[in-house]
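Data card: per-record layout.
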Amino acid sequence: MQNKYEESLPKVDADVINDLLIRQRENPLVTPVYMLEVFTKEGIDSQKAKDFIFQKTGMMPAICDSGTHYVTNQKLILEVLKENLID
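The structure for this 87-residue chain is written out next.
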C-alpha cells in the first residue's frame, strides 16, 4: 500500500494519507483538521503563493523560512492532497 501512496501522491507523507484514510473510515461524518506544510523552491512570489493558498483553502498560511515554507491548519480530505498547491 505504501508504494501505491508514493505513486499516487509522491509529495505527501504516507503516514498522513494512512491516518486520514483511517479517520475517514472510523468516522465518515467528521472531516479531520491537520496542520499542512508546503515547501517551495526559492524565488516563488510569497504574496502570490499566500493568495493562492487562501483562495484554494480559505485559510491564510503562515510563511516561514524566507518564503519557502507555508503552514495552515485546515480540514482535510483526500482530494485536497491530490492537488499541487504550488509548482
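Known properties of this structure: Residues 2-82 form one domain. The mean pLDDT is 86.

See the next section for split statistics.
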